[in-house]
Amino acid sequence: MFESMGAVRIAILAVAAAAAIALAFIVRGMMAPDKAESAVAAAPMAPPPKPMARVLVAKKDLQVGYRITTVDLGWQDWPVESLNPTFVTDGGKPKVAPPEGVKKVANGAATAAQDLMSGDEPMKAFEGAIVKETILAGEPLTPRKVVRGGEGGYMAVVLSPGMRAVSIPVTSETGAGGFILPGDRVDILQSRSQEGGKGHLTEVLMQNVKVLAIDQRTAPEEDAKTIVGGVATVEVAAQDVEVLARGRAQGEMMLALRPYSDIGGPSRRGGLGANQTVRIVRAGDVNEVAVR
């Protein structure tokens, strides 16, 4: 009898253990949704997207003295809250930035289309401007860092190191009929009476000099072939300023237009007996030698 009672106790304990295990699984299943809900609740909410504007920036590093073209500029999305009043925007309404990685191709196409519609005018306003302070790639353009023709400080930026800007009175007769434009190369000549009335002496004062401006125009208008002005501003070395100053005091000077191929050549003094440069070509090697 005792043996049968022991077996009954063992069976009861086994049933109780099984019931306890089943209850544990039931309780765990009931608690699982709560944990999931708490995990969802604990997850931080993504911040709302910020409104963005499009700002005109440099595509590459622009050094001091560099002349800007529209190829050097581009549009870049910029947070509206970080906009500076000096930044140049495309004038469009601020837009909300899309989530990262969403329809990049479509966004790129939309940006390109917007460039065509609204990007031309602000870029053209900076075309031809000279960099006054270094502008890094991706940096917004500001009027403080560039100077345009007709603005103060323009000529000081355009001048090469060690060079000076000198103005010469010209007319349509002494300025090649107005065909001399800013950026051209010229020789500066002077014809004056010799002492004692022994005829006239024509002398080349400077050779291959760069023209910086005609009057206050530093670039010809679109499709313009001539500029008739009263003053030509040329670029000469500091030690050659006295040559032009003396020539101006002695009488009228004339500009002779040089070919476009001379643009890369150096400027130098002329005059009777002055050193001249002779180009010697030998076995394919080109050398320039100064001779008297």
UniProtKB/TrEMBL annotation:
<feature type="domain" description="SAF">
    <location>
        <begin position="53"/>
        <end position="147"/>
    </location>
</feature>
<dbReference type="InterPro" id="IPR031571">
    <property type="entry name" value="RcpC_dom"/>
</dbReference>
<dbReference type="InterPro" id="IPR017592">
    <property type="entry name" value="Pilus_assmbl_Flp-typ_CpaB"/>
</dbReference>
<dbReference type="InterPro" id="IPR013974">
    <property type="entry name" value="SAF"/>
</dbReference>
<dbReference type="Pfam" id="PF08666">
    <property type="entry name" value="SAF"/>
</dbReference>
<protein>
    <submittedName>
        <fullName>Flp pilus assembly protein CpaB</fullName>
    </submittedName>
</protein>
<dbReference type="Pfam" id="PF16976">
    <property type="entry name" value="RcpC"/>
</dbReference>
